[in-house]
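[stage:ingest] chain + small molecule (BES)
[stage:ingest] validated
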Amino acid sequence: MKLEAVRAEAWDLEDVEAVVVGLTERSGPEPALPRSLGPDDQKVGGYLKRAVARGEIRGKRGELHVVPLPGLDRRLIVAGLGPDRSLDAEELRRVAGSVVRQARGRRLRSLAFRLPLFTQGRVDPADAASAMAEGCRLALYEFTRFKPTETPGTVERVVLALGPEQGRLLARVRGNLETAGKLSEAVVWARDIGNLPANVASPAFLAEQARAMGKEFGLKVTVYDEQQLAEMGCGGLLAVGGGSSTHPPRMVVVEYPGQGGARSRTVGVVGKGITFDSGGISIKPAIHMSDMKFDKSGAVAVLGILRAAAALKVRPRVIGVLCCAENVPSGSSYRPGDVVRTFGGKTIEVLNTDAEGRVALSDGLSWLNATHHPDIIIDLATLTGACVTALGFDSAGLFATDDGLARALLASGEATGERLWRMPLKPVHHEMVRSDVADVKNSLEAPLAGAITAAAFLHTFVGDTPWAHLDIAGTAYVGSGAARFAPSYASSGFVGFGIRLLADYLKGL
Ligand code: BES
Ligand code: ZN
Ligand code: ZN
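[stage:predict] done
[stage:export] tokens:
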């Protein structure tokens, strides 16, 4: 899809099949069409004014009307923006996503948005442009690896028409479109990996994808196989991956050198890469178990983050670490009651083999901290069902040892629509994961503060380094339960949650 910004008015563009306008929610006993839609209303012979007056078009969030222009192969699309006061970049991302999906369904190939009608003096036009560009590109994504698309043909061209009102912002808008294009590219590339099932996307496969990406972007990639992990003392990752006879574990390290020279900061980004989480010996119930192919989402997001960092040439150095293993039951699986020694010597008492993410991450976190001395560590993991119970699908859980880091991540969450909700992390939670026979235990006997105690467990492995943990269990993929609540641009399956978020955070450093 080609995305462009022009100074012209949308209606002056000869070759677009639809002009898209935004309408905020009409209220009151006599709803009226805003004057700014006058030119559009003229094109459809006053239909808009009448339709608004009789309540047929209301501008409600999610509302879309497609009005054919009399005698012409052109349409006017009216997109409801919801109440004035709640309009923000994320709303525009969603609106743009719904519009292109609708357009694709109608086999339209080109659209022009009248940008000033979408910003409404409330959203910065350049921010609006980024958001709408992302919304369009991400909403058109389909996972077609195993089945051709059901809607052949797609929207090939989207124009943001600034008109005389916003024409002077053209250069800024174009700059943002370029960034949005690179970001969306990283996300859809990651979606194609994240959506793959476990019989294809094994730990070794993820390592290969990292290598291929490293080659393309000039990034250093190191892969540690099971022998090397044993030599390094990574007993956590080895324990989790030990049950799989076909897909042994890997630790994958991707390094982006940064643009800031010796003085720039180093950010470590660690991802949970469980290519399939059956629960292991503590096996999960059958229902929804197939969703556990998405238990690698943190690691795939890390790949996307490194790709975005390289494409956008962000200043800080970024080290990505993927902790990849398949968690399945067999004669060689780790067992409840086992005690394993992780990189650096800390020991874990395994009480539940289904709490494997934290065990796999322990090695990646402590290895990264000891070998690269990062200034900041951020991990992403589909870590706990408890986080989904607490927050649902709207926000990921944020746990942080540093308030500044938490604030920056929350701000990036608001800017990108990849929202976070900060959760507490207190000394008592560390006490809760203390084990009688090892440094920590991986599960409690009772279902208490499940997301928080998982975070407390991870904290054990990052020392004093400022650290944030994102529990993305509810936001990483859109399963059948979440489809109704997912944003238009999320597509079902792997979302790529965390890529735009962390790219925004890294850009700001
Ligand atoms: N991968 C799961 C967490 C998960 C659940 C992700 C639902 C996405 C959707 C994780 O490994 C797990 O099984 N956690 C257990 C921990 C428990 C055994 C302490 C959980 O949340 O039930
Ligand atoms: Zn599990
Ligand atoms: Zn898991």
